[in-house]
Amino acid sequence: MSVSDDVHTELRRKLIAGFFEPGMKLKEEHIATELGVSRTPVRTAIQRLITEGLLEAAPKRGAIVTKWRESDTEEIFQLRLLAEGQAAAWATRHVRDEDIARMEWLNNRIEEAVKTRPKGYLDQVQQHNLAFHTMFYDLCGSARLRVFGMNLLEYPLIIGGFFIYSDEDAMESIRQHQDIINALRSRNAEWARSAVTSHLCAAIERFRKTKLNTQRPPRRSVEG
């Protein structure tokens, strides 16, 4: 990897992890000093991150950390519908019995965490859910699709999807995971695509419902 690639990887990791506040300005000279490199690879890395939508161009060099809007989350979900559905369909060509067993193990761990609620269980759910969805790309047989899809999965608003689930939503998501597993076990590409699409469409609706509920003013009690 080049120095620019290293800088890009480090900055992207910090942006995805929420290390920088939205709207914060990143200056080339400060980043270069912090990472111990010249400004040229920093400038190249920043331009790549602007292209990826994680940064926005700022006057007088540098960039501003992108502020996430509802439309950004909707866009990520829509892209996941296309990418993940295709990955699941192609995964039916390569999936092995041990892969199916692994996905069932992950889904069972999610269900166990949701039902028993151990300390830090949401982190466990998030970790296992990410691993479950990553398997579509690991099994799809396309390096290009894997890179594209994994970039979408890294966004915190998507990774943290279980944090806006009710218990009922979480159990329904687990059931949908099982439907995906059944489709992969049958090696039925269209069923796999449909199962993943239905699963993500439900996630979109859940996100919309949650945002709508948080935007509504509190109801006032009426005394008769």
Automatic annotation (TrEMBL):
Keyword terms, alphabetized: DNA-binding, Transcription, Transcription regulation
Pfam families found in the cross-reference section: FCD, GntR
Protein's UniProt keywords contain Cell membrane: no
InterPro entries: GntR_C (IPR011711), TF_FadR/GntR_C (IPR008920), Tscrpt_reg_HTH_GntR (IPR000524), WH-like_DNA-bd_sf (IPR036388), WH_DNA-bd_sf (IPR036390)
Residues in HTH gntR-type domain copies: 1-68
Parts forming coiled coils: none
GO molecular function: DNA binding; DNA-binding transcription factor activity
Name of the protein described by the UniProt record: GntR family transcriptional regulator
Organism field: Salipiger pallidus
Lineage: Bacteria, Pseudomonadati, Pseudomonadota, Alphaproteobacteria, Rhodobacterales
